[in-house]
Design goal:
single chain; Diaminopimelate Epimerase, Chain A, domain 1; 2 domains; globular; Phenazine biosynthesis protein PhzF; isomerase activity; Phenazine_PhzF-like
Length: about 325
């Protein structure tokens, strides 16, 4: 049934969040607009087919299902761990960065009545793969959420990945910059640098060919990004037709992968590095993702620590019937 049908006894309340708003440190530095519409709701006894259908019917790329980790605890109650499951029209994902930002915004909003406006909300989050922490602070009508996405695996792109994937992206001659890499936070994706924002804007990939290439190589998709400027600001586009997302408005996990592989700010005595990534312009919904990197122990010996996230705003609450 369509969203807004409250006649069914199974009608569920769904919060649509604009996650990773522009203006969280990006080029415009403004109040914040755009973002990636993401559906967030308390988990319910739904089939996987119903979970896949929800983002389609609500016009979001992803849906996030949240559940209490302790029996009888309200979802989002202080101290209670919260489970997260992520779905697109193609099925379940092990992780979703902007979905995590959206979930944190909803949980912080629920806790807001008991907290001072600027007080930091912290929560333990669980996915089927791991447990991690996130935090959120309200600033005006925006909720700024960050989380640690977990250890990033990285390697050189294989010859097969290059041969199948790069032609499907249709990058202009001479526009690819050195350093094509594969990285994973549960699923492998290619990180493909291009020399300029103009080259990124001009991309018109063959999405069907890219889907087939990603399915054959087991890749989640391709994160194509410009070279960071001296302030760590760049632009990116994420193409993931193999999981039902031709182009993602915002992709926090791939941004975290890029931050980890660049190693900005990691090392003895180094201050935390910061990447500010503008996305979504080609889709008419400008978004900004922020990633910070630093050493875990302050000396560089403890390895890299990455946090990623962005600003979010509650857009609307609707009733949806499976």
């Amino acid at each position: 049934m369509a969203a807004g049908d409250a006649g069914s006894a199974r009608a569920l309340s769904v919060t649509v969040v604009d996650a990773c708003l522009r203006g969280g440190g990006g080029a415009d530095g403004g109040r914040g607009g755009g973002g990636s519409p993401t559906a967030v709701l308390d988990d319910a006894p739904l089939t996987d087919e119903e979970r896949r259908r929800l983002p389609v019917e609500l016009g979001t790329s992803h849906a996030v299902f949240v559940s209490a980790g302790a029996a009888g605890a309200p979802v989002g109650a202080a101290g209670a761990p919260v489970g997260l499951r992520f779905f697109t029209s193609a099925g379940e994902l092990p992780a979703c960065g902007h979905g995590t930002v959206a979930a944190l915004a909803v949980l912080a909003e629920r806790a807001g009545a008991e907290r001072a406006a600027a007080e930091r909300f912290e929560c333990e989050l669980r996915t089927p793969a791991r447990t991690f922490s996130g935090h959120c602070v309200r600033r005006g009508d925006r909720l700024e959420a960050m989380f640690e996405p977990g250890p990033v695996e990285a390697r050189e792109a294989t010859a097969t990945e290059r041969e199948l994937v790069l032609p499907a992206l249709a990058i202009g001659p001479g526009d690819t910059a050195p350093g094509v890499r594969a990285a994973s936070l549960g699923r492998w994706r290619l990180l493909v640098p291009v020399r300029t924002r103009a080259a990124l804007t001009a991309l018109a990939p063959d999405l069907d060919r890219l889907r087939q290439a990603c399915e054959r190589t087991g890749l989640l998709g391709c994160y194509v990004h410009s070279v960071p400027d001296s302030h760590g600001v760049l632009a990116a586009r994420m193409f993931a037709p193999a999981i039902g997302v031709p182009e993602d408005i915002a992709n926090a996990n791939s941004t975290a992968c890029l931050a980890a592989t660049t190693g900005a700010g990691v090392g003895a005595g180094a201050a935390a590095g910061r990447l500010v990534v503008d996305m979504g312009d080609s889709l008419g919904s400008p978004a900004t993702v922020i990633a910070t990197t630093g050493s875990r122990d302050g000396t560089g010996a403890g390895g890299a620590r990455v946090e990623v996230g962005g600003a979010a705003r509650i857009a609307r609450v609707v009733r949806w019937s499976p």
